[in-house]
Amino acid sequence: MKTEDPVIAGYDGVVCDLDGVVYRGAEAVPEAADALQRVVQRGVKVVYATNNASRVPAEVAEQVAGLGAPATAADVVSSAQAGAARLAEQLEPGATVLALGGDGVIEALQAVGLAPVSPGADAGELETVAAVLQGYGRQLSVRDFETAARLLTTGLPWVASNDDATLPLPWGQSPGNGAYVDLLAAAVGRRPDVVGKPHPPLYRLSLDRLGTEAARTLAVGDRLDTDIAGAEAAGVDAAWVLTGVDGPTELVLGHATPTYVLASLADLLRPYAVPTRDAGGWRCGSARVTSGADGLRIERGGADAIEVVRAGVAALLEMRDAAGERDGGGASGGDGDRLRAGAAALEHVLDDAAHGERD
Ligand SMILES: [Mg+2]
User: Name one GO molecular function term (predicted).
Assistant: First the structure.
């Protein structure tokens, strides 16, 4: 790849996250749909990988296509599908599986030739259950979890779509599938196989769907501990987009190391200036960032905000990883203060850029 080539020139396939990348709740992320159209026009394949197990792929695709992005049901890879694929490897064709979740779980099991039964099925049907697939389902009741606990107590295979502790709703955080997994685990004294991000199976299923090599596939996401950590675990490059929930503060407090830092999906179509180390600092474009005792010193020059952030992120990752080696993980004390101050300086640069756009 030449330096004037866009980021996407290095790849044949993209595994794209949805919330915080393509849309935020009910709203489109600006430029995202158009960028995805242009990516597909270049001959690059795109699938959408989602930890959301409750919705069926056709419904997800309809929402994405409604925003103007290229999407059919076959382009959506859900954690319920990854879970069903995992069980299909372990069970006889046609085996009965307790579908402890919404329509997405039921449809995913049917699609791989397994027979879903609901926790409300009669005793005779429940007696034939060979495994449990757990995904988020708003209709689930205490009695349904009781049924699942009774079946799991006998040692049946147990797969969970994802272990996200929280589910973001317009008013704040609600318990996510991970919270309901914990609830069952507390009762039965063991834990399920989890297939959604950051665990590798959802990314592996996405690679199968794309038919691309891991080395020629790029994962794109907004969450460091799921999208980016999951991509690292699956051995694919990871582009972190700053249109979603995580920012520089989450980066310095976590362990993920993105390959690229993008302002939005539109940056996939632009050349990428890789930050370079010089004596005591990092450069990106005309920005230069040095780390000192009190955080980061930023010389912006005429650089775009994203170039400042790329140089700053390079400096912070170097500090974070050095601090982790010193104290065996997790930056504490003075290291932690310097990292948080540096991250706050970058958040300030991003906030200013966002305000500039609105003015
Ligand atoms: Mg997301």
Answer: phosphatase activity
